[in-house]
Amino acid sequence: MAKREIIQKAKQQGRSTLTEAEAKQVLKEYGVPVVEEKSVASIEELEITADKMDYPVVLKGLGARLTHKTERGLVKLNLKSKNDLLNAAQFIKKAAGDDLEGFLIQPMMEGKREFVAGLFHDKQFGPTVMFGLGGIFTEAIGDVVFRIAPLDEKEAAGMLDELKAKKLLGAFRGEKAADKNALIKTLVGLSRIGQEISDIKEIDINPLLVSPDGKITAVDALIVLGEKVETQSQRVPVDVQAIGNLFYPKSIAFIGASAEFGKWGHLLFTNVIGGKYEGEIHLVNPKGGEIAGRKVFKSVQEIPGRVDLAVVTVPAAKVLSLIPDLQEKKIRNVLLITSGFSEVGPEGKALENELINEASKAGILILGPNTMGICNPHISLYCTGTHVRPEAGGTVLVAQSGNLGTQLLAFAEKEGIGIRAFSGSGNEAMITIEDYMEGFEVDEVTTTVVLYVESVKDGRRFFEAAKRVGKKKPVIVLKGGRTQAGAHAAASHTGAMASNVKVFDAACRQAGAVLVDKTMELLDLSAVFSSLPLPKGNKVGIMTLGGGWGVVSTDLCIENGLEVPKLSQEIIEKINIILPPFWSHANPVDVVAENNPDIHKAIIEELLKWNECDAVIHMGLIGRRVMVKNMLKSAVAVDKNYNQKFLEDALQLLDAFEKQFIENTVRLMGQYDKPIVGVYLLYDDTSRTITEIDKCKYKGVTFITPERAVKSLAKMYEYAKWQNE
How confident is the model at residue 138 (pLDDT cuts 50, 70, 90)? Predict the structure, then answer.
């Protein structure tokens, strides 16, 4: 019976699942290697065929309602005789009761290794394929990976490699390696089912058994039927040019401007003016008068000339009434700071929907509501509640948390990370994270995309956009709400193992987005991606001021998927000429307290020339200024032979040394196109992650810990590897 007929028959009978035998028939048509088996309707029929069987066998209860047979004792293994078989049948008949429709007989298969594969329809991302460690411990161990359909053989092979227990796929305890081609074919087949059969809601194949000769066999399967799960309703995408225009206003009206310090109506316009924005600024408040020596208009209608952006801080209940005036004034863009909309509950949601409907009719684009604001350093526009003003650059930062976003902006300002634009996206009533992604794709100034995401409105659109953007520029993502359970019903192992965050992470990895676990990593990665060339491989040369750091950094490299190759004899001989004879003669290279920047440059250059080195980490060569500064202060305080000028002259020399060393590394990166990352010996309030060198393509990057340096380099390698696949 063909798959369509099997499913149609089940639906006509009002069933929500296929029997195990039916499920395997469907799977077999899609290339899944199912076990050869026989089904019988009764014990009498079983007794007739029992003499013709090759023992041992497995007997299972068969029925559409028997979805958890093992837990109900309806699977009997290793039956070695006709008598064993018939006794097992009697037990199953009693245990299954009215749910029993027949029996399924399979050969008893041996194998120490069990895997699970499945399919489900995610509400955000659509058909999703799962693969993992199977058997009775599937949910307890949780070693599973996901991919968004459709997936090809290459993506399916990547799922096998991503499994933590992937060693079990190789030769294992005298058994041959698993047939990976059969596993790949199974995963691709599940993907095809997800694309082609809308009536199938969920599939669970557990276990996929690996026999001693490596053969793969699906010995149990469940297919759950249901209406096609529609992904969340797609919105009409916002034109990318319209989003760009919102960040480039030539005139701004602050509606709800206030003279009271600390109010949003005061925070925003003072930040914009203090940030040296050169466009026109108009203050609007029904009371009129003056604020900070500026005329206050009672409505936008009184403002002479064009207004490109309205920044609104009036209470939520009054926002809707602004739409007619905004429309008449032909103000097309609104930054709606005001809270009190969908984030507060159903009433706020209703008000937000009404506002968006009216704004759409009026041709008005709203960013927000409930947003911390925006900034565009390229036109000195800093319109956020927190008065931080990072310099212009290529890193876009979009945060679904305004407070987190402005904290990251403050870090970017301190560390010298140039910002293309920032948006606290707020409730995303009109402009969603998916709209931003499509804007980054076409924006030539954007070099790195940094996102803090708690949810997406249209997962499939986000996935497709991230994949396109990632081929051109790195997308760095921190997902909030990682501990929230998914909404999938646990009708199977597949459903039980799926959760929102796992599927989101899988979608990001598949799309080439760089996932991070901590907020600081967002900016660390924006620093390296915006400042360094991508590594072409994972081999790292390490230069350190002390042996302990070398040990720590080597461990960190190995733990993060990087290699620290042994120095070749040729490299050792070259460094022998540069360093004293008691240097480490190994990678990491201990420079034995040498202070000459020319020596350090020479060693780094030898490492960069080496074919077995894709990147260099140097540790302790920057930041000695801080250590010596404290030493000199103590010397001046206790010894009258030293004076303040001595201290200042010494610090100037150290400053010059460090600047020269950083300039050397930056120029070497330009010459060899390999990344160099530093780690501070000590740091103070003047220390920065990024150091720019005039007329150089790349920048110096120095972190305060080896962990941050190594993790950043490892993420760069992961991204470069994906981009070249």
Answer: low
Does residue 489 fall inside a structural domain?
yes
Judge whether residue 380 has pLDDT over 80. yes
Same domain? For 709 and 635 the reply is yes
Helices 519-531, 706-723: axis angle to 10 degrees equals 60
The answer to whether the beta carbons of residues 51 and 82 sit under 8 Å apart is yes
Which of 189, 208, 231 terminates a domain? The answer is 231
Question: Which of residues 231, 266, 288 is at a domain's end?
Answer: 231
Strand 216-218 versus strand 251-255 pairing type: unpaired
> Is residue 67 pLDDT above 50, yes or no?
yes
Q: Residue 496: pLDDT band by 50, 70, 90 thresholds?
A: very low
**216: β partners:** 210
DSSP for 56-95, please give it.
SEEEEEE-TT-S-TTTTT-EEEEE-SHHHHHHHHHHHHHH
Q: What is the 3-state secondary structure (H, E, C) of 290-349?
A: EECCEEEECCHHHCCCCCCEEEECCCHHHHHHHHHHHHHCCCCEEEECCCCCHHHCHHHH
Binning the chain into helix, strand and coil, the percentages to the nearest 5 are 40, 20, 35
Amino acid, single-letter form, for residue 80:
K
Cα(507)–Cα(458) distance, integer angstroms: 12
In a domain, 604, yes or no: yes
The residue count for the chain = 725
Q: Quote the CA–CA distance of 84 and 65 in Å, as a whole number.
A: 25
Residues 263, 161, single domain; the answer is no
Higher pLDDT, 228 or 495: 228
- Identify whether the C-beta of residue 200 lies closer than 8 Å to the C-beta of residue 7: yes
Q: What is the C-alpha separation between 244 and 165, in angstroms, rounded?
A: 46
Strand partners, 373: 384, 424
What percent of the chain stands above pLDDT 70?
95
Within a domain: residue 93? no
CB crowding 209-227: b at 16 or more within 10 Å, else e: bbbeebebbbbbbbbbbbe
- Enter the tokens of residue 722: 């994906």
Structural domain including 138 reads 111-231
Mean pLDDT confidence for 241-264: 96
**What's the token pair of residue 500?**
């929102």
Percent of the chain with pLDDT over 90: 67
In-domain check, residue 418: yes
Cα 450 from Cα 563, distance rounded (Å): 27
Instruction: Give pLDDT, residue 313.
Output: 98
pLDDT at residue 296 in the model: 97
Q: Let me know if 54 is exposed, middle or buried by CB neighbors in 10 A (0-12, 13-18, 19+).
A: exposed
354 and 220 share a domain? no
Confidence of residue 664 (pLDDT cuts 50, 70, 90): very high
Which one, of 398, 399, 479, 507, lies nearest residue 446 by Cα?
A: 398
| Whether the predicted pLDDT of 494 surpasses 50 | no
Average pLDDT in the 502-523 region? 92
**What are the counts of helices (DSSP H) followed by strands (DSSP E) for the chain?**
24, 30
pTM of full prediction above 0.85:
yes
Distance of CA 172 to the CA centre of its chain: 33
